[in-house]
Amino acid sequence: MNTEQPWAERVTQEIGKAVLGQSTIIERMLVALLANGHVLLEGMPGLAKTLLIKSLGTALGLKFERIQFTPDLLPSDVVGTMVFQPGDGRFIPHLGPIFANLVLADEINRAPAKVQSALLEAMQERQVTIGGESHRLPHPFFVMATQNPVEQEGTYPLPEAQRDRFLFKLMVGYPEESDEREMMRRWGKVTTQPDLQPVSNAEELLSLRAHVDAVHVAPAIQDYILHLVRATRATTAPDAVRNRLAYGASPRASLGLYQASKALAWLRGLDHVAPEIVQDIFLDVMRHRVGLTYEAEAEGIDADAVLAEILNRVEVPVASIS
Q1: DSSP tally for the chain: helices H, then strands E
Q2: pLDDT tens by residue, 32-57
Q3: Rounded Cα distance, 261 and 286, in Å
Q4: Least C-beta-crowded within 10 Å: which of 86, 97, 296, 313?
Q5: CA quadruple 116, 121, 123, 124: dihedral sign
Q6: Residue 224 contacts residue 261 (beta carbons within 8 Å)
Q7: Radius of gyration of the chain (CA)
Q8: Ordered structural domains, the chain, with CATH
Q9: How far apart are CA 49 and CA 40, in angstroms?
Q10: Which segments of 191-322 does DSSP mark as H helices, in order?
Q11: 171, 24 Cβ separation under 8 angstroms
């Protein structure tokens, strides 16, 4: 492992052996790791969402588990259950696949809300309760979930409380023509598949968070983050978007935007958060935390359009370093 090469560059290059053309998505996933946040990726089938997360786990050398969400999945299939031991007549906990550093919840919206909610305690408290006893999850712990658009047949929209636990909702689109051509060139042969190796580990990742915490956020930027989040709420939103918002983001969004902005600034070699950093990451933190009115949806307006209008309406601070 070449520790002289910057961490993000090492990990990105290793993932690039298997996934092409998703540099922004990879950057956001690294931000989530540094900010101790979970990620929800949405896109049509076949866009390498699963491969991307699996490659990230391999490159980081983390214990990885994949859970395929299906309509018949049970909560115990995720967190575990109590198993009877005939020898001594006791019940002992059988820990489920949630006990890993990086858990891929694949096609999370294929399972009903009861199973989706099995992740709530794990995502928020980093623990699960089995048979009345709490069990701590490994450290670090991340959930990275994929979902197909809710218009797809046989899917269930995630509950609002579940969506709010994700730091980011990232939209995975189709690759550029040049990237798709390169995919065919590299992996067109059945016998040729990418071979990834660990280039980092959990200890290194955890140590980097101290550098992220040292990134400076000026009071003016703190106010800017707060004003942006509060502008998503109907009672404090700009007049131009007020009638389009059914509900806004919670205080968890303020913390998420604050922490993610610091992590992104550090990744880009900055020692402070500039307004451009907050603006760059705003939609990814917020798009799954706001609800639109029926009128807005009827007009074909989506959350990104409303959030972009909020960015245009909220005053940007001039002095951002001191």
Answers
A1: 15, 11
A2: 999 999 999 998 888 888 889 999 99
A3: 13
A4: 86
A5: positive
A6: no
A7: 21
A8: 7-191+198-202 (3.40.50.300), 214-313 (1.10.8.80)
A9: 10
A10: 202-213, 219-230, 239-242, 251-267, 275-286, 294-298, 303-313
A11: no
